[in-house]
Design goal:
CATH class of the largest domain: Alpha Beta
Number of domains: 2
Number of helices: 10
Length: 319
């Protein structure tokens, strides 16, 4: 006959079984976060994505939230391309399923701005052993430091482009400042291409028509990824522009151009009026040739894509 163990013995044996402790719970919460960061350091994006829930959320240092695995994957790939690194310290589980930490963050963009490393704070939530959210933020002092550097760099970038395009004519220098997929949305003249080649061609045509060309002063306003530049172009119209020969008259034209900056380069340009207004605007006292004025009118004076976009929230270290 099978005998049962005394109740007292059973209870004693239960006390010998391992009981999950708060430390064990903390370890189980921090492990997915640490594994995610290790995968990112090694450049293994697929491995990092597999550590996320399907509805995971990633918030970058600029406050942009990327929702869902595919959006987070794209953001993480951007991290890798930007050589993102973070030295993490003071990690702790503040409550079950919620982890916080401090980090010293560095990237190619931050180094370019001269502010690397930056102090940042992070928070993650864990659900069923996977990372459900991973959020970063810059404390006030670091955010101010970053924004000042970012604004100054954007101003310098646009000012340099204007100088190279309208005065110096340095084609290699201009291409170095323009994004590979640069779009020029402002009307120039019939046949104008809205890319880097078109921008360089329009600038060259203007420099060829106007001698003693100068630009200034340049007033700029920076709002996130966008830079508005207001400036005056001056010179002597001594060459040919759009089949019209200049007569040596002095020209002076106020211009307002809008630029979008991304990845440390100029990605897009808009203008309230086309390049031709520098020579054919009201201040020049001349009407544009029919081929020029009709095309400009059809395009609203700034090209079919000339309407400036609604401002979008800036992305991960967008400058």
């Amino acid at each position: 006959m099978r005998k049962s163990l005394p109740v007292a013995v059973v209870i004693s044996l239960l006390f010998l079984l391992p009981v999950p402790t708060l430390a064990d719970k903390a370890s189980s919460d921090t492990t997915p976060v640490e594994a995610l960061e290790a995968a990112l350091r090694a450049g293994r994006v697929d491995e990092a994505v597999n550590l996320l829930t399907d509805d995971a959320i990633l918030r970058d240092l600029e406050g942009t939230e990327h929702s869902g695995k595919e959006a987070v994957r794209a953001a993480l790939e951007g991290f890798m391309k930007d050589e993102w690194r973070a030295d993490v310290g003071n990690r702790q589980v503040v409550e079950p399923g919620r982890v916080t930490w401090l980090a010293s963050v560095s990237s190619a963009a931050l180094k370019r701005l001269g502010v690397a490393p930056l102090e940042a704070a992070g928070e993650a939530t864990i659900r069923e052993g996977k990372v459900a959210s991973y959020r970063l933020r810059l404390p006030a002092a670091a955010a101010i430091r970053y924004e000042k550097a970012r604004t100054a760099a954007a101003r310098d970038l646009v000012k340099s482009l204007l100088d190279l395009a309208l005065v110096k004519g340095d084609e290699a220098g201009m291409r170095a400042l323009l994004a590979a997929d640069f779009k020029d949305n402002a009307f120039a003249f019939p046949g104008h291409k809205g890319d880097a080649d078109g921008f360089l061609a329009a600038a060259a045509a203007l420099r060829g028509a106007v001698s003693e060309l100068s630009v200034g002063p340049v007033d700029q306003y920076v709002d996130g990824d966008y830079v508005t530049a207001r400036f005056t172009v001056r010179g002597k119209w001594s060459g040919s522009f759009v089949n019209r020969q200049g007569d040596g008259r002095l020209v002076e034209s106020g211009q307002v151009w809008l630029f979008r900056v991304a990845g440390g380069r100029v990605a897009e340009r808009w203008a309230g009026a086309g390049w031709s207004t520098i020579l054919y605007g009201p201040e020049a006292g001349l009407s544009a040739p029919a081929s020029l004025s009709s095309t400009a009118a059809a395009d609203g004076g700034a090209g079919k894509k000339g309407k400036a976009p609604a401002k979008k929230k800036k992305g991960w270290l967008g400058f």
